[in-house]
Design brief:
This protein is an alpha+beta fold. The chain folds into three domains: 101 residues, Immunoglobulins (Immunoglobulin-like), CATH 2.60.40.10; 99 residues, Immunoglobulins (Immunoglobulin-like, Sandwich); 83 residues, no CATH class. The protein has five helices and 19 strands. Strand 9 and strand 10 form a beta hairpin. Helix 2 crosses helix 5. Bound molecules: heme C.
């Protein structure tokens, strides 16, 4: 009896061990991950009988196949969804969908798009859809962008970007005024402007900084569209220009011209001499400091490090010279 019990417990132990071993050996389960690029879909108010469409996307951001079912639920038949039904998406695949809205009366129409899938974390999802029909004409403002990024420029420069304001309703859009909160950004267009349906205007915004820094502003558009005030965010970055005369040539005069005056194949006694290059060719590629032979020699990544047989230049000095080249290697 005792032996029998011992045998059973030995077997149970063995089973446990085998069980946990085979768990560890199982291949990792690849899971799908559903991403929907909208939370809700909001149509503007449009005239009865007119049509508006909105697109959205489903993306499989996981590693396993995504099985998804799409259904449109509505009380009326003002919306249509294309495509609908069952879909399989491989990892990184995208499904593009279009919702069409054609109101039949003066009313607000709520609906839902149900998305069920095998994503364990997001298996049942509802996208709210809403649109309104009206008998009266309505003005609508549409923007080509809700952000203008001016990128990086030198603090003594300026740059311009365009934005298009369109009248997409069925009544005249009146844009009363446009305000910008920071005066480094300027708008050239004079307001008010009246746009009949189907027309648009292009507005130029100029970024002209005075001092270096990151600028983050807002442009606000006041109109008779129900979306008013519309806000466009403005992003820009201004960098201090590095001067050759005051920040670069003095480095050569202090550490290099002893050898690179007339000998050593490269003359560093002036901007013109530097840009005329060495016996082997150009040492500066304007706009690309990292690939310029001059910077490689200073960092010691192309043969002997410069200055030869002397301590290296400070990193901050090399960075500044590299920035001067990145900014276009100007004679400034
Ligand atoms: C002690 C003398 C000496 C000093 C100081 C010196 N160099 Fe040189 N440099 C040389 C010699 C010799 C060569 C050629 C051999 C070589 O490339 O290593 C050279 C080569 C170079 C080259 C490569 C030119 C080519 O043919 O492509 C660059 C660029 C350069 N030096 C920049 C500098 C800079 C910038 C400084 C100052 C921070 C400096 N050097 C300081 C002696 C010097």
């Amino acid at each position: 009896m005792k032996t029998f019990i011992r045998l059973i417990s030995a077997m149970t132990l063995l089973q446990l061990l085998l069980g946990s071993c085979s768990d560890m050996g199982d291949p990792e389960i690849l899971l799908p991950q559903l991403i929907v690029d909208v939370e809700s879909i909001e149509f503007s108010t449009i005239t009865i009988g007119a049509t508006q469409t909105k697109g959205f996307r489903l993306i499989n951001n996981g590693e396993g196949e995504l099985q998804v079912t799409l259904a449109l639920v509505q009380d009326s038949s003002v919306y249509s969804l294309d495509p609908q039904g069952d879909f399989n998406l491989n990892p990184e695949d995208t499904l593009n969908l279009v919702v069409t809205f054609t109101p039949q009366s003066n009313a607000t129409y709520p609906a839902e798009i149900l998305v069920s899938s095998n994503d364990p974390e997001n298996s049942d999802l509802a996208i709210q859809v809403r649109g309104r029909g009206t008998a009266v004409p309505v003005p609508v403002l549409s923007l080509s962008d809700n952000q203008l990024d001016f990128g990086q420029i030198l603090s003594d420069g300026s740059v311009q970007k365009q934005i298009t304001l369109s009248s997409t309703g069925n009544d005249t859009l009146s844009i009363d005024s446009v305000t910008v909160e920071q005066d480094v950004f300027q708008v050239d267009t004079v307001f008010p402007q009246h746009l009949i349906p189907g027309t648009s205007i292009s507005v130029t915004v100029t970024f002209e900084p005075v001092i270096a820094g990151n600028y983050d502003g807002e442009m606000t558009i006041y109109s008779n569209s129900s979306s008013s005030p519309d806000v466009i965010s403005l992003l820009a970055d201004a960098e201090e220009a590095v001067s050759y005369a005051t920040s670069v040539q003095p480095v050569w005069d202090g550490s290099c011209t002893g050898c690179h005056g007339t000998s050593a194949g490269l003359n560093l006694s002036s901007y013109a001499q530097l840009m005329s290059g060495a016996n082997s060719g150009a040492v500066v590629i304007a706009g690309d400091g990292a690939s310029s032979r001059l910077i490689m020699k200073l960092r010691g990544t192309a043969g002997s490090r410069m200055p030869l047989s002397a301590p290296p230049l400070a990193d901050s000095t090399i960075d500044r010279i590299e920035r001067w080249i990145d900014q276009g290697a100007l004679d400034n």
